[in-house]
Every structure is written in C-alpha cells, then in structure tokens.
Design goal:
Blueprint lengths: L2 H10 L1 H13 L3 H13 L7 H13 L3 H13 L7 H13 L3 H13 L7 H12 L4 H13 L7 H13 L3 H13 L3 H14 L2 H14 L3 H11 L9
C-alpha cells in the first residue's frame, strides 16, 4: 500500500491501518515491523502493548533497520516492555549512531553526558551531539550549544553556543528558542528575546513556561517582556502538553 493511502487509513480508521501494517510486518518488511511496533507502543489502532512492541522492534533491528535499532535502545533505556538496561541501550544507540542515525547519536550523547550505562565521557557526548546537529537534528543543536556554553567536552565558546542555539531555535525546538532568547536578553536585544521567549512558551511544556516567567523576572526586562510574563501567568498562550 502506498504511503499516502496508508496515511489516509490512519486518519480514517486506525484499526484497519493496523491490520494492513501487520500483514506487511508479518511478511518480513522491516519498515512495517517498525511501524507496527510503534503502533503497539503508542496504542494506535490496537491496545497498547510495549512488550509486543519491543518484539517487533527487535525483528526489524535484526534486519539492520537503524530506526528499529534506535527504538530497541529507547525501550531498554526507558524500561518499555522490558526492565531498564542502560548498558544494553548504549550498545544499540552506539550501533545505530556509528552508522549515521541522528536520533541514535543524540541518545548516545545523553548516556555519555549522564554516565548512564557506560562511563561518563563529556567529550564523547559532545561528539555524538555534534554529529546529530550536523544532520540538522534540532534538539542536538541546542545541546551542542549547551556544551559550548558550559565547556562540556569542548573548550568554552560563547559565540559557537549562540550560533547553535540560534540554529536550534530557527529549526523550531522550544528549548533552543529559550536558550537563544536567554543570550539575547544578556546582550540587551529585548525585542528579539521577547519573540523567541513567546515561541518557546507556546511550543514548550508548562515547565518551560515557568522558566520563561522566571527568566523575565530575573532580567529586570522592559515592558514588552513584562507584558509577555503577565500573559503567560494569565494563561493567555496555548502551550504544548509535553
């Protein structure tokens, strides 16, 4: 079935779409196995079942599908359908990351940064984040910026941090938007900061909304930013749920 037709089925009848995906998955198509695993993980068109989801991810991973290898890592990392095993998660992330998978590079960076499942190594964390960022991964761009700002695994470089935060912000990632706005505030570029803080609050979580309000309060910012804080406190911006 073509991708447009499958998408139409998802929109109209997720249960029927799941049936079609299962047929392709059972025939051994890795992309379908990955898709069916995600449907089971999220409960799309059929009951949520993380244990079965992981089994389908493993089947697709055994055929070399990099997305599936990364998803097996995520299941092991988060304990979806299996006990948490960060060391095994790291093996899967590195396998897909070293083959060029941007999300796996981002996930491997997290484990190295936190020392979860392997020896903490900020230099390797930075390198994996950078590999993902160079593939336009918006979240990795923000974390490369953070590494440059804090000197994690790379010499401290505020100009480079600003550039990566800006790129992440322009790519639409709310944390990148918040980080870029923070640097704009420090530079006294209040109108630009207000624009990016509003975008971060509208696209981010409730925690980001609170952080925006606190940042504005601590900055002693001008009226435009104070008005934004008042609107946020009044709940006048539509926020993402997660």
């Amino acid at each position: 079935m073509s991708t447009p037709r499958l998408r139409a089925l998802f929109a109209q009848d997720a249960r029927r779409a799941a049936d079609w995906v299962f047929v392709a998955a059972a025939e051994g198509l890795p992309q379908a196995q990955l898709c069916y695993g995600r449907m089971l993980l999220e409960g799309t068109g059929l009951p949520q079942d993380p244990i079965q989801a992981l089994k389908w991810f493993r089947r697709a991973a055994s055929n070399g599908d990099l997305d599936a290898i990364n998803m097996v890592g995520r299941c092991l990392d988060h304990g979806w359908g299996t006990p948490e095993d960060p060391a095994a998660a790291a093996e899967h992330f590195r396998r897909a990351a070293d083959a060029g998978h941007a999300w796996a590079q981002y996930n491997a960076g997290h484990l190295y940064l936190d020392g979860r499942g392997l020896t903490r190594d900020r230099t390797l964390a930075y390198r994996y984040y950078l590999k993902a960022a160079e593939q336009q991964h918006d979240r990795a761009m923000s974390l490369v910026g953070r590494c440059c700002e804090e000197g994690w695994g790379t010499p401290r470089d505020l100009d480079a941090a600003a550039d990566w935060y800006r790129r992440s912000a322009e790519a639409g990632y709310f944390r990148g938007q918040y980080n870029w706005a923070s640097l704009l505030l420090k530079a006294g570029r209040f109108d630009e900061a207000a624009t990016w803080l509003e975008r971060a609050a509208a696209g981010g979580t409730a925690a980001v909304r609170r952080a925006v309000v606190e940042l504005i309060a601590s900055a002693g910012a001008p009226r435009a930013l104070q008005n934004l804080a008042a609107r946020l406190n009044a709940g006048c911006l539509t926020l993402a749920s997660s």
